[in-house]
Design goal:
The chain is an alpha/beta fold and 353 residues long. It contains 12 helices and 11 strands. The C terminus is likely disordered.
């Protein structure tokens, strides 16, 4: 029997008994986490934030595997993926035992394979996990063919209700691969413990263990993941920095190798330029470029420091030599200073007589 699950948004579905939900045969639950570039919000005048925290905690308390999804809006898919990734990381909804974080494509203006692929690849990079999901209607899927996208580990989640009477039927229009089928939006009679006017119910056409991932799902080593987490923390901090907060300060407070980049403005500019040119850069590649930039910056900083110290030293040496040899020997004192300057320029290596 296919593993059954639900997807909810706490503004519309009030789960008052998670144990009853689990006893209804529900094994997994996707929770709405974001709207575009914002945390999911209520459809009221104030657009009151409705984060996924309580729903994720409730599902876990009943032994239901949680996962998050982001509702796409027209705009930049990279920025929207970053917001969802931050919530996935914050709520621990990645790794074995969790659903793949999903992109919900249904808003007019988002029907684009390019949008979907860019979002999902960015999401994979940010969370350090290949297993991600794409949700769309069967009619959209027939046009966009998500099963052919070059996104390794992609779970294809298709909505097709048929007569929408609570029973599962065939998927029309779309003939590609379906991993999860949302077969009704009126499944409240199938699940106890929820108060709502409607409820989406899904069935997985792949093994639940595959849907929930395993150790081989990781794209990065533990060390890579640690670096990625620090980078995510930096990105979140710099994005929320108060007015006047510089990128330098935001990175410095994280206290890792990234701080070294900002020791020299040229290193900062070099790394940021590389990332801007290639927003899908991997964690390893970014680390290598940071190391290179830091090395260059360090060399440049050392040269600049030497020049400054040399100038300050020479400014003091001249009067000191003159005081020793006397005003009558000013020309000789000047030659001593010039020779010292030459040796400093040569790196301290003078010529032997």
């Amino acid at each position: 029997m296919p593993a059954r699950g639900i997807d909810i948004f706490r503004i519309y579905q009030n789960v008052h008994d998670w144990r009853a939900v689990r006893h209804s045969g529900v094994e997994y639950c996707w929770v709405k986490a974001t709207n575009g570039t914002r945390i999911a919000f209520a459809n009221d005048a104030a657009r009151t934030p409705a984060p996924a925290d309580s729903s994720v905690a409730g599902a876990r308390s009943a032994g239901i595997a949680p996962g998050l999804y982001g509702y796409a809006l027209p705009g930049d898919p990279i920025t929207q993926a970053d917001v969802l990734a931050s919530e996935v990381i914050r709520l621990g909804c990645r790794g074995p035992g969790t659903l793949p974080p999903a992109l919900d494509l249904e808003e007019p203006g988002t029907k684009s394979a390019d949008f979907g692929v860019r979002f999902l690849r960015r999401l994979q990079e940010r969370i350090g996990q290949q297993r991600v999901a794409i949700y769309m209607s069967a009619s959209w899927a027939a046009e966009l063919r998500p099963d052919t996208w070059n996104v390794p580990g992609l779970v294809v989640w298709i909505a097709a209700y048929g007569s929408n009477n609570g029973n599962r039927g065939p998927i029309p229009y779309y003939t590609g691969r379906t991993d999860v089928h949302q077969f009704t939006s009126v499944g409240l009679h199938l699940v106890r413990g929820i108060t709502s006017s409607g409820l989406d119910v899904n069935e997985a056409d792949i093994a639940l263990s595959t849907l929930l991932g395993g150790e081989d799902d990781d794209m990065f080593t533990d060390n890579d993941r640690a670096k990625l987490d620090r980078l995510n923390a930096f990105l979140a901090e710099s994005a929320n920095a108060p007015g006047g907060q510089t990128l330098h300060d935001a990175i410095w407070r994280n206290g890792d190798a990234l701080a070294q980049v900002l020791a020299n403005q040229s290193a900062q500019n070099e790394v940021l330029a590389q990332v801007a040119q290639n927003p899908e850069i991997t964690a390893d590649a970014l680390g290598d470029r940071i190391d290179t930039a830091v090395a260059r910056a360090t060399a440049g900083l050392a040269e600049e420091l030497t020049n400054r110290l040399s100038a300050q030293l020479l400014a003091q040496v001249g009067p000191a030599v003159l005081s020793v040899v006397g005003e009558d020997n000013a020309e000789q004192a000047d030659r001593v200073v010039q020779e010292l300057a030459r040796r400093l320029d040569d790196g301290g290596h003078g010529t032997s007589a």
